[in-house]
Specification:
The protein is an alpha/beta fold. The protein is built from six helices and six strands. It has a six-stranded mixed β-sheet, sandwiched between helices.
Length: 189
């Protein structure tokens, strides 16, 4: 099967920062939306997908206006659900619990939160449903890391090493199939 380009973009800066924003639907800043639009101004895509959360969806809508493309909203591209930690800063969470989470987010998820393996599975299903054409997905840092786990087989320590600031973009060449794989072409912080 032939390859296609997949571009994963983290949403722009939200109004709330420095917090675990999983399911919390926080509005983006105007500057955050503008940063996303500027990041992809010269990108050639045929399909535009966004998480259903405002910080991703509003950036995608602005990009759609520039590219004259419709936005396909897909909740599977949401950020990890941080459960009881959602909306809280890291200094508001027990330090030992937080350290265990960063060490192994599958065995030690946030209370009433999503396991890492569930996020990876959800993102894997979203990737499997992609049409093989140049695609931009406006999503979240955790979802981008999960996509890299699915497509490139990166381990958790490798994934945590990726700096994914707001409006960052990863471009991949993807080979679809039962076990899709990808090559990273570029990372723009």
């Amino acid at each position: 099967m032939s390859s296609f380009l997949l571009h994963l973009m983290r949403h722009g800066a939200p109004r709330l920062t420095g917090r675990f924003l999983g399911r919390t639907d926080c509005e983006p800043t105007a500057a955050g939306i503008a940063a996303c639009v500027n990041q992809v101004a010269d990108l050639q895509v045929e399909m535009l997908i966004a998480s259903d959360l405002s910080r991703a969806k509003q950036a995608a809508a602005a990009i759609a206006a520039l590219k004259t493309l419709p936005v396909d909203v897909d909740a599977r591209w949401r950020e990890m659900d941080f459960g009881d930690w959602d909306g809280h800063a890291s200094n508001e969470i027990d330090g030992e619990d937080l350290a265990r989470f960063w060490e192994d987010p599958d065995t030690n998820p946030p209370p009433r939160g999503e396991r890492w393996s569930a996020l990876v599975e959800r993102i894997g299903l979203a990737i499997a449903d992609l049409s093989p054409r140049p695609t931009l997905v406006v999503t979240h840092g955790g979802a981008m890391r999960a996509a890299l786990a699915v497509l490139c087989g990166f381990s958790l320590p490798q994934l945590w090493a990726f700096d994914l600031p707001y409006a960052s973009l990863i471009s991949l060449k993807v080979w679809p199939g039962k076990q899709p794989s990808a090559q990273i072409l570029a990372l723009w912080p």
